[in-house]
TrEMBL record:
InterPro entries: Bact_Lucif_Oxidored, Luciferase-like_dom, Luciferase-like_sf
PANTHER family recorded: BLR5498 PROTEIN, LUCIFERASE-LIKE MONOOXYGENASE
Protein name: Alkanesulfonate monooxygenase SsuD/methylene tetrahydromethanopterin reductase-like flavin-dependent oxidoreductase (Luciferase family)
Domain of life: Bacteria
Signal peptide: none
Organism: Saccharothrix carnea
Keywords attached to this entry: Monooxygenase, Oxidoreductase
């Protein structure tokens, strides 16, 4: 397994100023680089405490690139539906150059009605805009005198500058929360998979991981497919302290997402079947069940190591885990403790005896 950090703020001005949150995150980036973690990522969301401090992950990742030499820099994820592909391809190519070829480019469809409304984009178009946007970005990265005549955008012939450092282009990830069809399409296209165990049952996640590996192998790609899973994570020397911190963070995160998905009370979309149920997400207290199902990595170093072995047994040991260690509600010093305990007492001891 590989391990990295994903930053998903769920705080607003009444909780913590944005500049303080970013200062804390960059402090954790420095520590992740020092301790040998694999990557850092940042989300894209708007308006709400649920991710709203990060409307442009590339800006944060550029700051992270300037103070690191080794960490991979991942979007988690950028939304093609909300930006012209020429702009998105150029921003990511520029970041790939600033970082000397360390970008992992994850793309997502988005799912919050208020975000689509603000950009004037019909939700029913989200899948088609996503597919077209990703393909147009890849064309710009790899083709001189690129021309595109799609349903939503038209350009060319143009030659993007700068060209990405990584050839033929930075690794492309697809973020999928629910759809098996999206997993199949990603694998066949040679796009890596990024998903969130919190969004589905254990059996559903195991099915998606199995489907992705099967379809990737069947497509005959010349490189291994990557699977990135995102987990909230709190580690402490004392079990009670870890549980109390993890429960508080999960409760605050639930409040944040509940406010962000409220528009699903009176929204329907053919592109998002069943998403109306998200409006009730705040009415369910699932902390203990999520912890039992290893959807939350919370506990002492020994307990979290046991959870990680269980995850490896369920989904394979060739995964990359992105750890949500700092949503902004817990002191940054506690996030530092989590990173240090994992690096010193968990990750080195995960390999089984032969």
């Amino acid at each position: 397994m590989k391990f990295g950090v994903v930053f998903f703020p769920t705080v607003g001005p009444e909780d913590k100023p944005a500049h303080q949150y970013f200062d804390e995150c960059l402090r954790l980036v420095d520590l992740a680089e020092e301790l040998g973690y694999d990557h850092v990522k940042m989300v894209e969301h708007y308006f709400f405490a649920y991710g709203g401090y990060s409307p442009d992950p590339v800006t944060f990742l550029a700051a992270a690139a300037g103070r690191t030499k080794r960490l991979r820099l991942g979007t988690s994820a950028t939304i093609p539906a909300f930006v012209h592909p020429v702009k998105l391809a150029g921003k990511l190519a520029m970041l790939d150059n600033i970082s000397h070829g360390r970008v992992d480019a994850a793309f997502g469809r988005a799912f919050l009605p208020d975000e689509f409304k603000a950009f004037g984009i019909p939700m029913d178009e989200s899948r088609d805009r996503f597919v077209e946007g990703v393909e147009a970005v890849k064309l710009l990265w790899t083709t001189e005198d690129a021309e595109w005549k799609g349903t939503f955008h038209e350009f060319g012939p143009v030659t993007l500058l700068p060209r990405p450092v990584q050839r033929p282009h930075p690794p492309v990830f697809v973020t999928s929360a629910r759809s098996v069809d999206s997993v199949v399409a990603a694998a066949r296209a040679g796009h890596h998979l990024q998903t969130v165990p919190n969004a589905m049952t254990v059996d559903e996640l195991r099915e998606r991981v199995t489907v992705f590996r099967r379809e990737w192998a069947a497509a005959g790609h010349d490189r291994p497919g990557q699977i990135h899973l995102t987990f909230p994570c709190v580690v402490a020397e004392d079990e009670g302290e870890a549980i109390a911190r993890g429960r508080l963070d999960e409760e605050r995160n639930t409040v944040a997402i509940s406010q962000a998905v409220r528009a699903w009370q009176d929204t329907t979309s053919t592109a998002y079947p069943g998403y109306e149920k998200l409006a009730d997400i705040g009415k369910r207290d699932l902390f203990d069940q999520k912890l039992a199902d290893d959807k939350l990595l919370i506990g002492t170093p020994d307990q979290v190591a046991a959870q990680l072995r269980s995850i490896a047994d369920l989904y394979g040991d060739d995964l990359t885990l992105s750890l949500g260690i700092h949503s902004g509600h817990l002191p940054v010093e506690q996030a530092e403790t989590t990173l240090r305990l994992l690096a010193d007492r968990v990750i080195p001891h995960l390999r089984r005896e032969p």
